[in-house]
Amino acid sequence: ALLLLLNAQSFAQERPDARLIQGAEKEAKLVWWTTTNLDLSQRILERFEKKYPSVKTELFRAGRGPLLNKVLAEALAGRHAWDVLSGSGEMYAPLMERKLVVPYRSPESKAYDGSMIGRDGEWIAYHTNSYVLGVNTHLVKSEQAPRSYEALLDAKWKDGKISLDSDAYPVLIGLSQAWGKEKAVNYLKRLAAQNPVVKRGNDERVQLTAAGEYPLLIAYASGITRVAQKGAPIEWLPLDPVVVQVNPLQVAARAPHPNAARLFTDFALSKDGQEMVRS
What residues have CB less than 8 Å from 179, skipping those under 6 apart? Predict the structure, then answer.
């Protein structure tokens, strides 16, 4: 599921700088571009506006590929519309190469593990996503469910029985780090020979699996949990190794509302903000 990235033992809620609040209230607006689930993003902005009613918010949500393309296209055209970006780790390098983000070391970052913060403060992990195996419990009995990557290669899961995300690059990256690139690529070729159903998106594929379209899928644990909590016949199982995707939060180098950008970053990384993500 989405993970709380705070060190609970060392955590102490930081009080926002009064000058930062005043600056944000004067700017009166915040623009957040994100890959984060739309419902969660909207609820976080509602909480932010409740805390800082003078700052009105604007949200744009898209998948990692379309969002990165939009950021780069806008920059090329000389437009700088966004203040804060939260996306996936693969977006980091293109943004840094083009100097589109600026370091900001939030006071809240003191509660985070060092591995979750960029060396110069140019990014900090907003949340993580874990890739797991989702199982339709009406179609697959618990004792029949595959519990390893190798088990997915069984002939009974051939021809449309497994749903995969066409954009899930972190799976390749994560397995390559764990197994080595050659073994990871070889495994994914064997998995492709199972003729899985490949399409973009996590939430839609989870819904389809819960509805009985596929017995199995590889997707985010958080999306499967949300649907399961509503009573859908779906559960998830961790496959070893579990691939974890880090989703960093970054401040725009040419943010139209730089104070609001930093105030929102502080809020999103705070105990209140992170508990919303965890929930």
Answer: 187, 241
**CB atoms inside a 10 Å sphere around CB 275:** 11
What does residue 240 show for φ and ψ, rounded to 5 degrees? -95, 120
Distance CA 83, CA 69 (A): 16
CA distances in angstroms from 144 to 141, 216, 218, listed in the order given: 5, 12, 17
The contacts of residue 19 (CB under 8 Å, 6+ apart) are none
Instruction: List C-alpha distances in Å: 221 to 64, 101, 124, 134, 237.
Output: 18, 29, 21, 8, 9
- Which run of H or E residues covers position 203? helix 203-210
Tens digit of each residue's pLDDT, the chain (279 residues): 334 444 444 444 556 689 999 999 999 999 999 998 888 899 999 999 999 999 999 999 998 889 999 999 999 999 999 999 998 877 888 898 999 999 999 999 999 988 889 888 889 998 888 999 999 999 999 899 999 999 999 999 999 999 999 988 889 999 999 999 999 999 999 999 999 999 988 889 999 999 999 999 999 999 999 999 999 999 999 999 999 988 899 999 999 999 999 999 999 999 999 998 887
CA–CA gap between residue 15 and residue 141 (Å, rounded): 50
Could you tell me the pTM of the whole model? 0.74
Both tokens of residue 39? Answer: 């419902």
Q: Which two tokens stand for residue 62?
A: 């898209």
